[in-house]
Fold Peptidase S1 domain-containing protein.
Amino acid sequence: MLFAFNFVLSLAALVDGQTFLDSPPKGFVEGKSFKECPTRFKFKEQTFYSITAVGGERAHQGEFQHMAVIGWTRANNMIEWLCGGSLITWQFLLTAAHCASDLENIAPDTVRLGDTDLGSTDDDGFAVEVPIDRFIKHPSYRASRKYYDIALVKLVKRVWPSDAVCIACVWREAGAPTVVMDAIGFGALGFGEKNSPTLQKVKLSAYSAEECVRRIPISRRESPDGLRADQFCAGSPTMDTCSGDSGGPIQTERSDLFGNLFPLIVGVVSYGTPCMEGSTGVYTRVSSYVDWIEAEVNQSLSYDVCTSVNVCDRKADSSVTATYHTATPRNRFGLLWHESDTDIHECGAVLIDYQFLLTSAECVTSRRGEPRFVADTAGGERVPVKDVFVHPRFKPGKPANDIALIQLSKYANLEKAFPACPWNINLDGVWSKEPSFAASIPEMSHYVEYHDDSKRVLTLSPLHGERCFTDGSDAHNGLYCINRNVSLVPGSCKASKAYHFYSSSL
């Protein structure tokens, strides 16, 4: 079986020895044409992870593992649960600043996690109650204003993951998702009603700024600047958040490349019109406060860090699955401009012979000049570049003829690196098979504290492709367009320049 342009890195244990050698290895034969490639480089199978397909009602136990409720212990030792929150680290909740005290100016003292029915003991075996250590309001929050309504709750001790308790990620994008979102909480089921003892979820859509202004009465005393960019509003014709939902999340869900669904907190419930059919809620936009949040919790809340935590039993997107398959040994390498560089994902190249790699002409003609080294991992061996050959018809800024060759000063050791054979239309015929594409993702770790951003694996994702044309001109420009519409965690599938398709034939 011949694999062309396959650059997926094997996760199998590597044999001892260097990836590249100073002199030609044993059995070295100089090639004369690509036609000889399958016989010069015998395919070897190894195992790697690959992606085979990318791609108000009662909330149930374990459905929203990050949901927390914030309580006030009263004189009879009963706890009154008045606000919601979201667990975003193992010791911090995200909530609203106006939840810092009740109407009698008393601060909350308790947080409960893992419970979806506060009126029964059904979930008590899963629930965790933790005293509050500190309530951290945003420093610019004022109770007389509707702005900066965001806060963090630090627990006296960290909590541990379970079937009912886990952390959520934070939405870092400037705008709210265009898809319908979930708002969850124990708030009242209607205007003037008591808080719900069961966790409720409602489906809401974000409105434009113009629509928000039309729907939300603006008090010039409480909101002298009107609705600001760090706020947004959402609603639906039939549902909304209500009193008691304050501080709770409005969220979306996105999948990683392995089908694990992650909740991302887009906003914090702040205020709104009286809750009834067609009412509208205003939410503090979390992405506007990421820097402040990360400074207070003293850790990164990046997508990479959050999605690398695999200790929870996450919900799964059945259309996205990861399975074991076979593939060639490593042949994808990163280009480096300095020996101390560690970003091997900025530009990639695929090994096609003992000393030659195929890459993008754009990568080797940038302002940085030609790359000086290649490496297979951030901390791996640096192999010096001997020469670079750019396609003579390449024009910067144009996609056509965007191809180049890199000649190395060393020779590939076929025990550790294995060339891929370029597809040749004259030899292999028209490329009619469904291509696959490789993407870079962070390696999973058990806890955020041990996240290592330098650890990477490459995975496959089948994509539907079609011939594309640029500038309305050349029907034979050698370009192949690919497309897949799937809701992934932002940034979880970033391809570096010069990543390559691969296919196979018998």
The mean pLDDT is 78. The CA atoms of residues 299 and 472 lie 49 Å apart. The two ends are 5 Å apart (CA to CA).
